[in-house]
Structure formats: structure tokens, C-alpha cells
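Lab manual, section 2.4: Encoding a predicted structure.

Procedure: take the sequence of the chain (160 residues), apply the prediction step described in section 2.3, and record the output as C-alpha cells. A sample record is shown.
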Amino acid sequence: MFLDPEVLRNAMRQWATGVVIVTATHDGLAHGMTVSSFTSVSLTPPQVLISLAQNTRTHELVKNAHTFGITILSEGQQDLSDRFAGRIADEQDRLAGLQTFTLETGVPLIEPGLAHFDCRVIATFASGTHTIFIGAVLAARTNAETGPLLYYDRGYRRIA
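Recorded output:
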């Protein structure tokens, strides 16, 4: 017997998370999505993980390109979070009109942001409706001029 997904969803809403945008590019197509499932795995060697729904364009790009980028959003960037969370349809160019840059792999990273990570996929694990991608961090950059954008119980928050 499985737990009702709504019971799990309601319980998970009690977990406050930072907000990141995962970006990827493959065969000339760049795309991204808002993600809250991001964490450090190891400092030596430097590794992070993300979890992406298998039915998304970003998942396919990461799977095929074996690279991804992470932009950690700062407070006041709710509009970017919403934009990449689906306010702009998956088939449209969510990066249009935004300032981006690259570090090592050519993956677009969004400017500004609190921190940026450029990663190469080193392992994948399919689990339920998602895939966990572990990435070796090839480059990182910080720009912590403000606090992080937080998400808790279906709303954006900031550190008091």
C-alpha cells in the first residue's frame, strides 16, 4: 500500500527550501526549470545532485547533454522562479531576454544569482517519476549580495 500523494505533498510543504533554476543545453536548444531538490553531495570531489521530473524538457536536455547548470536565486527573484516553474510554457524559450553567461561547459547560467554551478553528470538514478542526477562541479561562482529566495508552504519567504 502506497501513501496518498496528497498526504506526502502536504507534509513536504513543511520543508523550507532554497530555490534554484536548473539549465541545460543540447543540440542548440537551451532550457531550464525551477527546482527545489538540489543539495551538496561531496566537497572532495565536489559534487551536487538534482532531481528532475522525467516528463520535462530540461530532464531530456540534461540526460542527453550530460551537463547542467545551477543558479541559486536571491530574494526578490520570485519572477524568475515563477517564469521557470511553468508560467512560460515548457515549449517556449524561458531564457529569452535574460542575461546569461557560461563557465566551463557552455551551459547558460542566469545573471544575477547568489551562486552558480557548472556541472558534468557523473551518475543517474531513476526513481518513480523522477531522475536523480549527480554532477561533478567543474566551476562555481558566488555573488552573495543579498539573502536567498526561500520557498515554504506554497509561498516565497525571506530570512528575517
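Check your result against the sample. The chain has one domain: 19-143.
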